[in-house]
């Protein structure tokens, strides 16, 4: 009987029906002592054969997978048409939120061309509704042209343009107040990782946002180790999961269990079709923010990596 139980679990562990069906059947007819032995065996076997699946099922329950493409300062009308073509052909997993970060000048054009299941996002916006801020755009302007997403705090904004934690937090708060969903980027530089400062950096960057934001329902956090962006180097699935897990624990401690469990924490940093499936298997990785690969047909495979 024990061998039969083991076989049943191996065949059915992916849906957990194996355990439930076996439990109900055995408990109808087995003596009390044997019931205890069977239950202990079943639970231990289930743990061995499906630890990863259990983790993904329960940890990700309720968090819809999210894949964003950040086009950065790339594109023309003709290249956008090519991207729209492969996105329209897809097929794209219907259980995934798909967003592409478009250069500001092409937002309206891209929005008019993208398939209905792909949404255009701005790559930046300012903390004020209007005024003498040459070169900036406001959340109100984005809403006026039908844009509902914005990427804020990307490492290039932080380290090329010198945006501080405080400014990014103020921009995030203002964008949320105006009805945008914010993809808030955080991540450490190589020297910070080598110095053992990864957690301190991402906690500090997130804390700055938490000081300005009370409602997190329209925030997606993108963990992007700066040393892995555009370098071809990718954090291993285990490295990425470790940071995501610790960040979720921080969110639980500081903002409460509801925020921590519902928060989508996505990974960015040289994500490709070749590595996305292994990354997607991790319990606390809820999607990706993709750079260069979002300009190529392989982006479709990345969107579908959680299937």
From TrEMBL:
Pathway: Carbohydrate biosynthesis; gluconeogenesis; Carbohydrate degradation; glycolysis; D-glyceraldehyde 3-phosphate from glycerone phosphate: step 1/1
Catalysed conversion reaction: D-glyceraldehyde 3-phosphate = dihydroxyacetone phosphate
Keyword Isomerase: yes
Cited PROSITE patterns: TIM_1 (PS00171), TIM_2 (PS51440)
GO MF entries: triose-phosphate isomerase activity
Enzyme class: isomerase
UniProt keyword list: Gluconeogenesis, Glycolysis, Isomerase
GO CC entries: cytosol
EC number(s) given by UniProt: 5.3.1.1
GO biological process: gluconeogenesis; glyceraldehyde-3-phosphate biosynthetic process; glycerol catabolic process; glycolytic process
Keyword Secreted: no
Assembly behavior: Homodimer.
NCBIfam families noted in UniProt: tim
Family named by the database record: Belongs to the triosephosphate isomerase family.
Name of the protein in question: Triosephosphate isomerase
